[in-house]
Amino acid sequence: MPIDLFADLGKPDSELHPQFITLRDAPGYAPARQLIRQLQQEFSDPDGNFVEQFQTFGLDARTFEFFLSVMLKDAGHELDRSFDRPDFLITKDGVTAAVEAVTANPQGNGAIQPYDAVPDFRKLQEAAEELEHTIPIRLGSPLFSKLKKKYWELPQVADKPLILAIQDFHTAGALATSDVPLVRYLYGLGQTWRHDEEGNLVIEGHQLEEHQHGDKRIPSGFFRQPDAEHISAVLFCNTGTIPKFNRMGHQGAFMAKGVRMLRWGSCYRHDPNAAAPRPFVYEVGDKDLALETWRQGTVLIRNPDALHPLPENWFGAALEHRLVDGEVRTMPSEPFLPFFSTTNILMNKSRGDVRKMAEGIYRSLTAVLPP
Hints:
This protein is α+β, with helices and mostly antiparallel strands.
């Protein structure tokens, strides 16, 4: 039975997540509202508490789960949500796999804690650099907790590939980090880089034994831990958010009058000797640009020791990593690969105003990253 994510549950606004209220009421989020109302017709709730959690404490986690359902269907999978665990059974080309979603969240304090995107780019860069050290510990904990649940022992999961999908909301700016720290943790493999005398980028790998931040230490190499062979892959995502739905709606059938959006951030630079990403900024809905895809922002990291490996080119992520002879091999599925992005909503602005703002954002980006 379809759900209504905007159903009136009889709660006062003071008990609702402030970002849900924005989604429900703000004119700038009309594209997301309309798109979500359309997509929710094909979404079921086996637990019976999805809507309440979406509107209150669990907005980030439930948005990520809802995003996964849309992304997986777009990739050609049939979804089965008839079980309370795991979140999805997906089937394509005669192969069925299990997907369990998990988010890294801030420590609970009894109150709703909205995620802070840290919109200033310089502060965002500083936050991302700090998070390089904390992410293995912050993401390692929820992944390890999921490993301990032994989903592979459930009859509906037995003898099937199992994917853990994770997104990070644990602190301000966490979504600005790429998959790189997680890849280090999963494979237990660090990297150093340098340019040789001819300007060629040289990357050298080394094994990591542990990760430390403050007085916390965890062993590196999640895929090397006991029972991890039951995990076929980990899916990293940093775009399973309300702004993603807003952009997808605005670039499609639900472009709202008086609403304009600028998306900016950094992306993969198609240069084998580049050591820094490329900055970008564009107006969402620009007819001269390629459309954003649902899978954009997803990275599948394969377990080299999986008992049930995923078929090649089957899952549908924008990027895949695999470990071959001790080296990480990367396989992109589309050319535009953002590492992170932020979306600014502009109300009742002229094309000239938007262009000036885009130019200013780009100048700020190129003050930190080479153009």
